[in-house]
């Protein structure tokens, strides 16, 4: 079977595109407006870009009426946003925060989470989340789609501070991902959770690269 997403008539009733680009890490991003209205929302088009310096990006589709997402506008206006790791224990709050609310409403008011003050960013952090990035806004790249909702803002930022719950660090200073159980986006309405990992090392990689210190894209 071949599937052309640009054709009107397609052999499947559901597009396989998002179902194949998996698993996608969730950018559970908190921000605040110039007027002090807090916001938090999950973005499945989220990724790190490089490590020197640490950079991240997220892509936010517009609303059908052409409005831009609050997270984008808040990051541009205040210069900051926070990434909160989305975990199995926080899955219901992550899902509720995905609701489309009017710009003046605070998603935190609907969530059973505790707000925590960040060090650098004016945006609050989710205290129950084990890890956070305080992200300093760099730039936005707008990519037009075939519709309002298909048009996206790609936001780039540097990671200026990382918060770590030491409960989820191993004795040798590594993140214990299986203890945290982060969730990731799949296709359709599906998600997955990380409960198992395995290690592979690139043949011939030097010691620094194997330790994740650079020299090899890990």
Describe the structure.
This protein is mainly beta. 12% of the residues lie in helices and 32% in strands. It has helices spanning 17-20, 70-78, 91-96, 177-180, 207-210; strands at residues 24-25, 27-32, 38-43, 46-51, 54-61, 80-84, 115-116, 125-126, 131-143, 152-164, 183-185, 191-193. A hairpin with a 2-residue loop joins strand 4 and strand 5 (54-61). The longest helix has 9 residues, at 70-78. The radius of gyration is 18 Å and the shape is globular. The mean pLDDT is 92.
List keywords for this structure.
mainly beta; 218 residues; 7-stranded antiparallel β-sheet; 12 strands
Average of per-residue pLDDT values:
92
Largest sheet composition: 7 strands, antiparallel
Order of helices and strands: HEEEEEHEHEEEEHEEH
Which strand order do you get reading across the main beta sheet?
A: 3-2-6-9-10-5-4
As a percent range, the share of strand residues is 25-35%
Shape: globular
Termini, distance in Å? 34 Å
Helix content: 10-25%
What quaternary form is this?
single chain
Tally the beta strands: 12
Low-confidence spans: pLDDT under 50, at least 5 residues?
A: none
Q: Count of helical segments?
A: 5
Radius of gyration, taken over Cα atoms and rounded to an integer in Å: 18 Å
Structural class by SSE content:
mainly beta
Question: What's the gist of this structure?
Answer:
By secondary structure, the chain is mainly beta.
What topology emerges from the helices and strands here?
Elements: H1 17-20, E1 24-25, E2 27-32, E3 38-43, E4 46-51, E5 54-61, H2 70-78, E6 80-84, H3 91-96, E7 115-116, E8 125-126, E9 131-143, E10 152-164, H4 177-180, E11 183-185, E12 191-193, H5 207-210
Antiparallel strand pairs: 1-11, 2-3, 2-6, 4-5, 5-10, 6-9, 7-8, 9-10, 11-12
